[in-house]
Amino acid sequence: MTKEPYIVINPQANSGRLGKNLDKILKTTKDYIGDFEYVLTENPRHEVELAEKAIKEGYKTIVALGGDGTATNMGDVAVNYPDVTLGLLSAGSMCDWHRTHSIPYDLESSLEIFAEGHVDKFPAMRCVGDESYYAFDVADGGFTGRAAAAAHYEMKWMKIGLIKYNFLAIKYVLKFKNTPCKLIIDDGDPIRVESLTNVMAGVADILADFVVLPSNTYYSRKNKDLGMVVAHDMKGLRRIQMLIRAGGGKLPGMKGIWLTRGSKLVVESKEEPLCWTAEGEVFNEKKLKVEIERIEDALSMIVPKEREYPVDYEESIYHETFEESFEERKIERIKS
Question: Which residues contact 283 (CB under 8 A, 6 or more apart)?
Answer without folding.
Answer: 127, 128, 129, 130, 131, 132, 133, 135, 139, 276, 277
